[in-house]
Amino acid sequence: MSVCDYKLSIIASGIRKNGQAMNWDDLSVVLAISREGTLSGAARRLGVTHSTVFRRLGTMEEQIGARLFERFRDGYVPTPAGETAAQAAARVEDEVLTLERKLSGQDLRPSGVVRITTTDTLGTILMRHLPAMRAVHPEIQVEVAISNVMANLTRREAEIAIRPTAEPPEILVGRRVADIAHAIYGSRAYLSRHADKDLSAHDWIALDDALASTVIGRWIHQNLRAAHITCRVDALPALRDAALAGLGLALLPCYLGDPAPGLRRLTPKTMAEPRSALWLLTHEDLRRTARIRATLDFLAKAFASERPLFEGRRANASLSRDRGQLKAT
Description:
The structure is a single chain. By secondary structure, the protein is an alpha/beta fold. The chain contains 13 helices and 14 strands. It has helices spanning about 5-10, 25-35, 40-45, 50-65, 80-105, 120-135, 190-195, 215-225, 235-245, 255, 290-305, 305-310, 320, and strands at about 15, 20, 70, 75-80, 110-120, 140-145, 160-165, 170-180, 180-185, 205, 230-235, 250-255, 265, 275-285. Helix 6 (about 120-135) packs across helix 11 (about 290-305). Residues about 1-20 and about 315-329 have low confidence and may be disordered.
C-alpha cells in the first residue's frame, strides 16, 4: 500500500457501512467507476483487473444493501447512492492530496523524483538541458510526460509544467521565462514555385479541431477562413514537417521554424500577433519543496538561455535574402 493509500484508508475509516468501516479500496472503486464510466476504465485507473473491480463493487453493494450504479450497455451510471459515495470519495482524495503537497513542501533536500509535463516541441529543448541538470543535482530523478494537454498539478499528475500559454491557470504559480514569437514559414521548394503570390493566395497547412483553442489554431480561424487548406494536422511537429514537405505555408512558433534549415521565414520580423509566453508552473503548496525549487531554478536559467530562439531573434541566415520575395497582405 502506498503512503497516499494508507492515509486515505485512515480518513475513510470514519465512513461506516452496517457498523463496519468502509475502507479506501471501496471508495476508490466507486470514484474510479464514476469518473471512467466503465469497469475496464476503472480497472486501468486503479491498476487492477476488470474482474477485481467487478468483484469489489458487487461485494460493497451487497454489504451496504444498495445499488451504487445502473448498468447500461455503454457503461455505468451512478445511482443517487453512488453519487453520494463518489462525492465523499472525491473529498477524501482532495484532503489527502492537499496534505501530501503541504508535507512535501517541508522537504529540505533537493533529492527524489520530480515529475515534469511539457509539450512535444518543448520536450526536445528540455532534453538537451537535462544532462547539465543531472550534473548539478545528481540526486534528483526527472520523469518527463510529453503531452499537449495541461496535466492536473493539483492531483499530482505532475509537479512542474513547462507550457506555452498566454494565460496560465490561476491555481498555479510560476515564472514567465520568455515571450514566444510566431512567423509564417514555407519550404524553399514551395516558395520557388509560388514566389509571386499574396499570402492569402497561397496553399496553407492548418491545425485540426483538437488544437483549435491554441494560439495558432485561433489565428488560423480568424485569418484563413477563405484560404486553401491542403492539410490539417494535430501536432506542431507535424505542422512543421508538412511545411518542409512543400504542402504550403504554415504559421509556426519561431523556436520550431527557425532551426529547420529547409524552411524560410516569409516575414523579416516576427508577427505582432499571435504571441504567447513560456511558463514554468507548479502548485502553490509545492514551490518551496527543495527538489521542486531546485528544478525550477535550474530550468528557468536553462530556458532563459534560449530566449533569442523563443523570441524569434535567431532567424535563419537566409532570412535577409528572402525580404521582398513575397507580397505582403
